[in-house]
Design brief:
Elements lengths: L7 H5 L1 E5 L2 E5 L6 E5 L9 E4 L4 E4 L8 E7 L5 E3 L9 E4 L3 H7 L2 E8 L5 E6 L3 H7 L36
Antiparallel strand pairs: 1-2, 2-3, 3-4, 4-5, 5-8, 6-7, 6-9, 9-10
Length: 170
Amino acid sequence: MAAPSWSPWELDNAVGQFRAFLVVRQPGENRCYIKQSFHGDDDKMELIFDGNTLSVVTPHMPSGRWDATWWVDSGARQTLAHADIMAPNSFRLPAESLDLLRAGSYLNVRLTPAAGEPLSQTLSLLGFTAASRKLTEPECAVADSQDAVAPSGEARPGAIDGDDPQGGLP
């Protein structure tokens, strides 16, 4: 499994790093998102969570229909048919997947185009719980948002052992 890496812009705007996830503050806005990316590797998928939406950004997929199958650890596989995929190079995971990601160690994704070879990738979930908590802190929380992940300091069920609650960049 490849180690995550981020662009210079992402690193310059980071407010915390939690193992495989970077918390990035959008400049000029009081909101953040967490991201696992592989800067410079156009063949890798990226996982992004803004406190509301979990998205997987895919490498450039061939035009036409494709399906995405995902599962956490050795859990049940779930498939998003082409009709459920919102953009040509990304898709949203269902809201109910959030608890699975918080409790899991790995997210497995398999993209299957109508023609051509499938693409599979395993993404580490280490640090996901702690990074998602960071989204609720004052430097990231959107004022008066009813969609916040949780109040700052609230314990999350299914926290991954080793999550660094303090964050911080190396």
